[in-house]
């Protein structure tokens, strides 16, 4: 089975490990998608959005254009030298573009990467603190490339003011970063807020931010715009509070909740980095995600990408489209060709689905015991990568009926210039120690042997991830 378009998937770690170790966790890890009923219209709205649909992220790409430098609040996990940390890894700097340059870049990328379906503006500051540049960019793209979905990520402070404009421009996906619904907690995250030409410090500012975020959520719901909420998990500050945030956003119609780990290091120069505030462990992150999962759809495949990200999630092709390069390129945006590629992807997705269902049917009588498998994939929803080339493994939880993506784990890839590295293999084994098997396109005898010695089985295949995982489960189950 060969996908219509190939992509390389690499990523930051937002893994989860210990809690779902071999044997399962007794039911806390609910199937996020199963808990949320979706009608056909809603499914169609998210079908090719790589962030709103976990399944779509194997096939479709997004890009960001960095047109919005200013910000109107201060988050303690942000250093203004870098991109907005609400949707980016700290320490990443993007090249600023004018709206016209951004439109040129989008047309170039849309020609070169036809599976790019979504254009997001996520910084480097707050898009709504730069309304002219943000909206001008969206206008230009809506006019020149109408088949591209528009997406916006904001801290929410100015959202109620711009809701009509957002609606008018047909921006169908808006993310708000909401880290608290209790201003006392917010005061530990936001030192100040700048609203309507005045700076408000401490709790006074946080109250304004909270009020605008809640009003913004309600306005999005009323305008029938899909809303994703990002929350940064900050241990000791909002870890116990996030279920309350989850409840508040759910009540106000948010569609999906993305709980992301705080990434904090002194070299980022942020308040939290300099004062030793740590990020969550993978188990802490998963525990909070699981706590909220029964209530609404959770996003677990976020890669905390940059404000100029290009490609499949986790893939970083931004360097191929640096300002110096894309300004020299002639846009080859061709809606008919793009449509053809999308039709190919959809056909392929149908085949994947059918293959999965076939194996699922034969598995129905198997036990419900859960286990984890690690998958090497270049995208397309397939096991299709050589063990030695994998820079990340996607972790799936499998039981007799279901294969559910739960995390991705970044690793140093094993083949360095054609040579396997023992220290790297040790690290990979450590990173995958709670997995029953690795599913790969190919693997050398030496790493295979060492994985087996560590109690991790290997499966070589080139097929749909779910199919390979269920077949492995079937086999494993017989051997028990
Ligand atoms: Fe970009 Fe954000 Fe739109 Fe996606 S990213 S503006 S919703 S198109 Fe996606 Fe990147 Fe995570 Fe954001 S993986 S950081 S959630
Ligand atoms: Fe930084 Fe984004 Fe927070 Fe503004 S909203 S302070 S750019 S993280």
Overall number of strands = 20
CATH architecture heading of the largest domain: Alpha-Beta Barrel
Q: Widest sheet: strand order?
A: 10-9-8-5-4-3-1-11
Q: For the CA atoms, what is the radius of gyration?
A: 22 Å
Q: What is the end-to-end distance?
A: 30 Å
Proportion of strand residues: 15-25%
Structural class call reads: alpha/beta
> Which segments are poorly predicted (pLDDT under 50) over 5 or more consecutive residues?
6-35
The number of helical segments is 14
Write down the overall geometry. globular
- Fill in the CATH topology of the largest domain: TIM Barrel
Classified in CATH, the superfamily of the largest domain is: Aldolase class I
Q: What's a concise summary of this model?
A:
Helix content is 34%, strand content 18%.
Descriptive overview:
This protein has 480 residues and is an alpha/beta fold. The chain has two domains: 17-326, Aldolase class I (TIM Barrel), CATH 3.20.20; 365-479, Nucleotidyltransferase, domain 5. Helices cover 34% and strands 18% of the residues. An eight-stranded mixed β-sheet has the order 10-9-8-5-4-3-1-11. The protein has a five-stranded mixed β-sheet with strand order 15-14-12-18-19. Strand 8 (226-233), helix 7 and strand 9 (256-261) form a beta-alpha-beta unit. Helix 2 (99-112) runs parallel beside helix 3 (131-144). It binds FE(8)-S(7) cluster (CLF) and iron/sulfur cluster (SF4). FE(8)-S(7) cluster (CLF) binds at residues 51, 62, 64, 87, 118, 120, 122, 151, 153, 173, 175, 228, 258, 302-305, 313. The site of iron/sulfur cluster has 11 residues, from strand 2.
């Amino acid at each position: 089975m060969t996908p219509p378009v190939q992509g390389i998937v690499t990523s930051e770690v937002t893994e989860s490990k210990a809690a779902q170790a071999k044997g399962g966790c007794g039911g806390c890890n609910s199937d996020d998608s199963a808990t949320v009923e979706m009608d056909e219209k809603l499914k169609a709205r998210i079908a090719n959005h790589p962030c709103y649909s976990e399944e779509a992220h194997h096939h479709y790409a997004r890009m960001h254009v960095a047109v919005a430098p200013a910000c109107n609040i201060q988050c303690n996990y942000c250093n203004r030298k870098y991109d907005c940390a609400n949707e980016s890894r700290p320490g990443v700097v993007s090249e600023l573009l004018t709206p016209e340059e951004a439109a040129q870049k989008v047309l170039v990328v849309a020609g070169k990467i036809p599976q790019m379906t979504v254009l997001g503006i996520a910084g480097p500051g707050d898009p709504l603190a730069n309304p002219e540049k943000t909206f001008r960019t969206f206008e230009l793209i809506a006019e020149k490339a109408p088949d591209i979905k528009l997406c916006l990520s904001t801290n929410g402070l100015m959202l109620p003011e711009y809701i009509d404009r957002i609606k008018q421009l047909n921006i169908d996906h808006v993310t708000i970063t909401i880290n608290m619904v209790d201003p006392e907690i917010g005061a530990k995250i936001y030192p100040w807020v700048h609203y309507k030409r005045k700076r408000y410090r401490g709790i006074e500012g946080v109250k304004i931010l909270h009020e605008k975020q809640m009003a913004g959520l309600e306005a999005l719901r009323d305008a029938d715009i899909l809303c994703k909420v990002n929350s940064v998990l900050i241990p000791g500050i909002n870890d116990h509070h996030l279920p309350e945030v989850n409840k508040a956003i759910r009540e106000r119609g948010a569609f999906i909740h993305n709980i992301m780990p705080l990434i904090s290091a002194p070299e980022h120069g942020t308040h939290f980095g300099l004062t030793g505030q740590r990020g969550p462990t993978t188990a802490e992150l998963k525990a909070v995600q699981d706590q909220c999962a029964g209530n609404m759809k959770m996003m677990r495949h976020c890669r905390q990408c940059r404000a100029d990200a290009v490609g499949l999630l986790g893939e970083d092709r931004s360097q191929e489209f640096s300002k110096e390069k894309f300004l020299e390129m002639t846009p080859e945006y061709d809606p008919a060709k793009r449509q053809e590629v999308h039709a190919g992807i959809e056909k392929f997705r149908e085949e994947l689905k059918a293959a999965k269902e076939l194996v699922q049917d034969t598995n129905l009588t198997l036990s419900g015991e859960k286990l984890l498998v690690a998958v090497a994939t270049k995208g397309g929803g397939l096991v299709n990568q050589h063990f030695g080339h994998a820079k990340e493994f996607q972790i799936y939880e499998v039981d007799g009926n279901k294969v559910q993506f739960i995390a991705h784990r970044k690793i140093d890839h094993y083949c360095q210039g054609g040579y396997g590295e023992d220290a790297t293999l040790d690290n990979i084994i450590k990173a995958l120690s709670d997995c029953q098997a690795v599913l790969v396109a190919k693997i050398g005898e030496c790493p295979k042997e060492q994985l087996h010695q560590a109690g991790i089985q290997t499966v070589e295949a080139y097929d749909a991830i779910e199919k390979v995982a269920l077949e492995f489960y079937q086999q494993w189950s017989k051997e028990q």
